[in-house]
Specification:
This protein is of the alpha+beta class. It is built from 20 helices and 16 strands.
Length: 597
């Protein structure tokens, strides 16, 4: 039947109300703002506790040499170990800063929020230029540029990471991991002479891009064909001594050793031992929400998928109904009236003809209109319900988006709501500690230990991933720190006002170094205090009272002298006026007497 036919797709609304992107942006931005402050490090390095040393710190027994006590020697040992740990922490942070740690971590957080997982690679060796200024005996300055090998980290697209399928929820439990990269023919050509097998590179260049023996989607194959790029594969796993020797790698004999193999077009172009002696894979996976027995996770986009479909369905029905209800449905009875111009369209001042056989009483009922309701209120309720589902699915209420909504106006209530709404951020902070900070910095510590240089920073240390969790707690306790600052003036509490103010400045995204006195200024102030030591407040008060009394006496004497001078001037002026008046009267009396004569 014709009236049962479904309308064409072209007549239906296709609007897409994107609520996924705002949630992804809001979640990643909020986490990045919390976990990546510019004034602190996301980790700490402390010496490994030695119970034997801690137990004798209070001992007064003399050492065998008789120069110091056992307690003093233990304290000196701990102080030296702490100084080395601080130096190691500074060295590792310098390496991460050169790798643009904050920029790479922002990529990690954004991709994990979007698709559920992201990858950070490191440490791996890179060449960096070091500029050194030297001055000879005659004063001539020379700039020397040296290339040094340093560790680095970078973000790797999670779609290019292929771990062992049997790794479970941790890629480091697998036997191997593959990383895919794309290089142009020029980039592949430039690898010759840098430790790669030149003959294999030449053969790969002759074959051209696109050759592969792996089962995968055609997307990567089309990319290599269209963009003239080669698929470069990095294998991190284990290999035997014979396999390494066949690839041109000179290594010690052994059964199975951790290796890095680089391949292109099924050809091994380089094989070498792993960068770290432990053989750990230089990859760390950040997940937004963990999945059971799987190394990847669930992102915000997946969490809000159902709500996104509900919003789209309700919004499209709203638009379709709005289009239908924009005008009335016109019903005309055949055989009663007909348009004079032959067009069955409604226009102003249109002329209609009545059929000669029609009853005049049927004219009004021959044409009528039917109004279709918009149902806007009902459909908007569905959209609102879908948005509430999105908040619940992502655990990101409007409060985290900067909108108060129906929450309370009191300060205490807002703090409670803020703490409850940020529960999911605590979980993400701990995941960042467990999956990124601790294993990544541990490998940097291993690099520091096995490579030459920085001998004064080597020791037995513990990696403390204090950053992520500490940053969140610091961000959540802003108001509490502000209330504690006045309490620091009371020595009974044992609070350091300097440290409290430092934490308060960091919470408000202000670097303490920008607003504090420099070391030179502090030394000048201390020197000035020594030269002009503060006096007893009672003596200072007596001196101030005496100075004020002397100043008051001087002011009174000045006023008295001013008053006396003004009085003398007034009397002199009065005498002058009296003399002038007498002289004028004598002149007038003389004129009258002259007139009589």
């Amino acid at each position: 039947r014709p009236f049962l036919k479904q309308p064409k797709r072209g007549h239906r609304s296709t609007v897409f109300v994107n609520i996924t992107q705002p949630y992804v942006d809001m979640g990643s931005a909020r986490v990045a703002d919390m976990l990546l402050p510019t004034d602190d490090k996301p980790f700490g390095i402390t010496p490994t506790p030695v119970p034997e040393v801690s137990d004798v710190m209070q001992s007064s027994e003399l050492m065998p040499d008789g120069q110091a006590t056992v307690g003093e020697a233990a304290k000196a040992f701990i102080a030296e170990a702490t100084a080395k740990a601080d130096k190691a922490e500074t060295v590792i942070w310098d390496w991460l800063t050169e790798s643009r740690w904050h920029s790479e971590m922002r990529k990690i957080i954004e991709q994990s929020a979007r698709i559920g997982a992201s990858c950070l690679k490191g440490p791996f060796p890179v060449k960096r230029k070091k500029r050194v200024m030297t001055q000879d005996e005659v004063g001539q300055i020379t700039l020397a540029i040296e290339e040094v090998i340093k560790p680095a980290s970078k973000w790797v697209d999670i779609w290019n990471i292929f771990p062992d399928p049997s790794c479970g929820d941790n890629i480091h439990n697998g036997s191997y991991i593959f990383e895919r990269d794309f290089v142009s023919a020029r980039q592949l050509q430039e690898l010759k002479g840098t430790g790669f097998i030149d003959e294999e590179i030449d053969e790969a260049l002759k074959e051209g891009p696109g050759k592969k023996n792996v089962d995968g989607s055609q997307k990567a194959f089309q990319r290599t064909q269209e963009n003239d790029q080669f698929e470069l594969w990095y294998y991190h796993g284990f290999a035997t001594h014979d396999e390494l020797m066949s690839a041109g790698c000179e290594c010690d004999e052994g059964t199975v050793m951790p290796v890095i193999v680089t391949m292109v077009n099924d050809r091994v172009i380089k094989a070498s031992m792993a960068v770290l002696d432990s053989g750990e894979f230089p990859y760390d996976i950040m997940v937004w929400q963990r999945r059971t027995d799987h190394w990847s996770g669930i992102g915000v986009a997946r969490q809000v998928r159902t709500a996104q479909r509900m919003v789209n369905a309700a919004a499209r029905n709203l638009m379709d109904n709005a289009g239908v209800s924009a005008g009335p449905q016109i019903v005309i009875r055949d055989g009663v009236i007909s348009p004079a111009d032959g067009e069955y369209t409604i226009t102003p001042l249109k002329l209609w003809r009545v059929d000669e056989n029609a009853d005049i009483q049927d004219v009004k009922s021959a044409i009528t209109s039917i109004e279709i309701p918009t149902l806007q209120v009902e459909l908007e309720r569905i959209i609102k319900m879908a948005l509430e589902f999105a908040e619940r699915a992502t655990s990101m209420p409007l409060l985290l988006q900067g909108q108060q909504g129906a929450s309370t106006d009191t300060v205490g209530g807002m703090q409670i709501l803020q703490a409850n709404a940020s529960t999911v951020l605590r979980r993400i902070a701990r995941i960042c500690d467990d999956n990124i900070t601790e294993p990544h910095i541990t490998r940097y510590y291993e690099w520091l230990m096995i490579h030459p240089g920085n001998e004064d920073a080597k020791g037995d240390y513990c990696i403390v991933p204090k950053g992520s969790s500490a940053f969140f707690e610091r961000d959540a306790q802003n108001q509490m720190i502000l209330q504690m600052i006045p309490m620091a003036s009371n020595a009974a509490f044992g609070l350091d006002p300097n440290k409290l103010m430092t934490e308060f400045l960091k919470m408000n995204k202000i670097s303490p170094e920008r607003v504090r006195f420099t070391d030179e200024e502090i030394q000048q102030m201390q020197q000035a205090a020594k030269e002009n030591p503060p006096q007893d407040p009672r003596v200072a008060g007596q001196i101030q009272v005496a100075q004020l009394k002397t100043q008051a006496d001087m002011e009174r004497e000045k006023l008295r002298q001013t008053s006396d001078a003004q009085e003398i001037d007034a009397k002199a002026k009065a005498a002058q006026d009296e003399m002038a008046l007498k002289l004028q009267m004598q002149q007038q009396e003389g004129k009258r007497q002259g007139g009589r004569t």
